[in-house]
Amino acid sequence: MHCVQKISESIYWVGGNDRRLERFENMFPIPKGVSYNSYLILDEKTVLMDTVDVAISRLFIENITHVLDGRDLDYLVINHMEPDHCASIEELVRIYPNLKIVGNKKTFQFLGQFYNFDYSNNTYEVKDCDTLSVGSHKLKFFTAPMVHWPEVMFTYEETEGILFSADAFGTFGALAGNIFSDETDFDHYYLEEARRYYANIVGKYGAQVQSILKKVSSNPINMICSLHGPVWRKNIEYILDKYNKWSKYEPEKKGVVIVYASMYGNMENTANVIANKLAQKGVQDIRVYDVSKTHPSYIVSDIWKYSHVIFASVTYNMGLYYGMESLLHELKALNMQNRTVSLAGNGTWSPAAVKVMREILGCMKNVEIVGTPFEITSTMKKNQEPTLDKFVEDIYETLI
Ligand SMILES: Cc1cc2nc3c(=O)[nH]c(=O)nc-3n(C[C@H](O)[C@H](O)[C@H](O)COP(=O)(O)O)c2cc1C
Ligand SMILES: [Fe+2]
Ligand SMILES: [Fe+2]
Q1: Count of the separate structural domains present in the chain
Q2: Pocket of ligand 1, candidates 348, 354, 378, 379: which has the most ligand atoms within 8 Å of its Cβ, to mutate?
Q3: pTM score > 0.85 for this model?
Q4: How far is residue 138's CA from residue 398's CA, in Å, rounded to a whole number?
Q5: I need a surface site. Which of 1, 102, 129, 324 has the fewest CB within 10 A?
């Protein structure tokens, strides 16, 4: 049975949900599932905006067939040529042999790399700022390289003011019938997942996000249709603001994320003592994570949100504990910047954790290390409390 919704008088959402997939990109846990969105415009010509993942391709074809109601499909715009949006292209060309696939040079390069069917008679190549009139609707294509792949485009529909934004403004979390963000309790249900999606998948490309935001900002935007998660038609400034902040690597909130790596629990104990002391000074909303327990995508996401981070790690084979090392390398790879950081380390015979953490953090832009790193040799002793108090005080002073 088809499962579609109208998003405007002549545009339908024809996507679907996957709540079975354990990990998105085989990496990120998605306990709330994910949606693969696709949109179909009915005008003098019919236009499909992207396809979906293989997991829901049968339903997708049923959705399209239902909405087209016997009409031919004239255009398929490929805003993003990543497999979670491209599974049905070949089948669509088979069902609608006159279909014109709209993409840029890179789109067609990737189409050929991923698939083996003949689409040579179906291409319609566009460049940045080209337009395509399909009746009362007029599409304008904005290339958005590296948001987060090189072929990505945003398609702006001028008559209704709709921005089809590829993965941008997307979120993990399946749609539960309420397809518009204003029909959901977005702040409570989706925001954390939207941030986790942004930080981990798009986060590295802040500069590119900034440039596409500027490029499209001169057009009135009444609706944003992303490839994942709810459609925005109200309070659009809210999500634009979040994207602006996230892509500038600006924290949303003052607050402290404490991440620890600990085998026998001693570094963990120190992390908890630090959290306790900060809380007793009045710091609120502190987050404490065990790198071995929580998937790094959640920790990265909270580091994107808050202003301060304390990394506390044991020494492991003259270096860093694996989970901590990979988290720090991931943050570096994602271009994380503009954070206030403090360090704590532990080791029994030759502590090296602080030194290694400092080296990795030294490669990141505008990361300030506050307080003298707090070091223990196996367990924290009572006589170290004044030193720890000073460490906590130094952090606290930068928080108020
Ligand atoms: C496989 C392994 C390698 C280690 N390598 C070092 C090391 O190179 N230098 C060091 O000082 N301690 C090393 N340690 C010891 C731990 O860093 C130390 O015992 C620490 O106090 C453990 O703190 P925890 O209770 O938070 O796990 C190693 C421990 C293990 C299990
Ligand atoms: Fe993508
Ligand atoms: Fe995607």
Answers
A1: 2
A2: 348
A3: yes
A4: 51
A5: 1
Distances (CA, A) of 262 to 233, 323, 392: 46, 10, 20
Shared domain for 57 and 96, answered yes or no, is yes
CA 314 – ligand 1 centroid, Å: 6
Any atom of ligand 1 within 6 Å of the Cβ of 161? no
**Strand 123-125 relative to strand 100-103, pairing:** parallel
* Structural domain range at position 391: 253-399
Partners of 374 in the β-ladder: 344
Residues 302 and 377 in one domain: yes
Atom of ligand 1 nearest to the CA of 314: 17
Per-residue pLDDT of the chain (400 residues; tens, 9 = 90+): 999 999 999 999 999 999 999 999 999 999 999 999 999 999 999 999 999 999 999 999 999 999 999 999 999 999 999 999 999 999 999 999 999 999 999 999 999 999 999 999 999 999 999 999 999 999 999 999 999 999 999 999 999 999 999 999 999 999 999 999 999 999 999 999 999 999 999 999 999 999 999 999 999 999 999 999 999 999 999 999 999 999 999 999 999 999 999 999 999 999 999 999 999 999 999 999 999 999 999 999 999 999 999 999 999 999 999 999 999 999 999 999 999 999 999 999 999 999 999 999 999 999 999 999 999 999 999 999 999 999 999 999 999 9
